[in-house]
Amino acid sequence: MTDYGRPLQFGMFPTPESSRAEGVLDLVEMADEEGLDLVGIQDHPYQKDFLDTWSLMGFALARTTRIRVFPDVACLPLRPPAVMAKAAASLDVLSGGRFELALGAGAFWSAITAMDGPERTPGEAAGALSEAVDVIRLMWSGERSVQYEGAHHRLAGVHPGPRPAHDIGIWLGVGGPRMLGVLGRKADGWAPSNSYFPPPTLPAMHARIDESATAAGRDPADIQRIYNVFGTIADGPGGGFLGGPVGQWVEELTGLVVETGMDTFVFGAEGDDPHQHRRWAVEVVPAVREAVARHRA
């Protein structure tokens, strides 16, 4: 059993469909009003029906007052890390410290190359992601000039800035042993999805992160564990993991905290059903907070 004892956080995962842009922003405003902590927006620039994630995040921050926003996860092959670092810091400054950054190594390579992005092998993608973390931190460093020479990314006497308004977390949406090791050494959080990494796979992945963190002199509990969760909040009998009544959701999410080590849950509803999102915020989230508090007590 693993519970890192971290504070619980909850968020929403709206789909950035251009045909219903106002509805997406309405969901974000609801999340803000209902006291959720995060909004995560997927980043697939090659999806013709999707808005640009970074433009949408700016609008989301402007339409809210307290919730934090992050790309879930940023498509690194189409977002040069030095430029992305400046965009992230800018959004953080403009929002008063409400931006976080989650990075992905890339997928759907034929679509990426169709947009003039690089095609990388799994090893190259992992190396580029690891280097990107270094580059982004240098761009936020406040140093007068920074340099970096990597196999995929380089800085040659860049004057970094602006500094973020707060210490932006760098989270990685990764799953392989090599990148989980990189995460343990240098990242602030882990952002997998239950559709790719179901609960039974999580303990071994936590162990890899923790092993790497400990070897680097870090406390594994300092690493946030974010889980993108997809399912249906129903009134009838359960239909598998996260497919049933509120009580089932509370039991399963509480177990993921106190037995499996996750601490943050970002919910995506089929069709972005606003009724589902409101039930998540009003019925599920408070009950999970109470249940976890009882277990920890």
UniProtKB/TrEMBL annotation:
Species the sequence originates in: Rhodococcus kronopolitis
Domain Luciferase-like: 17-235
Endoplasmic reticulum is among the record's keywords: no
Pfam family name, one: Bac_luciferase
Entry GO MF terms: oxidoreductase activity
PANTHER family per the UniProt record, alphabetical: 5,10-METHYLENETETRAHYDROMETHANOPTERIN REDUCTASE, PTHR43244
Keyword hit for Membrane: no
Keywords assigned: Oxidoreductase
Alphabetical list of InterPro entries matching this protein: F420-G6PD/mer, Luciferase-like_dom, Luciferase-like_sf
Domain of life the protein comes from: Bacteria
Protein name: LLM class flavin-dependent oxidoreductase
EC numbers on record: 1.-.-.-
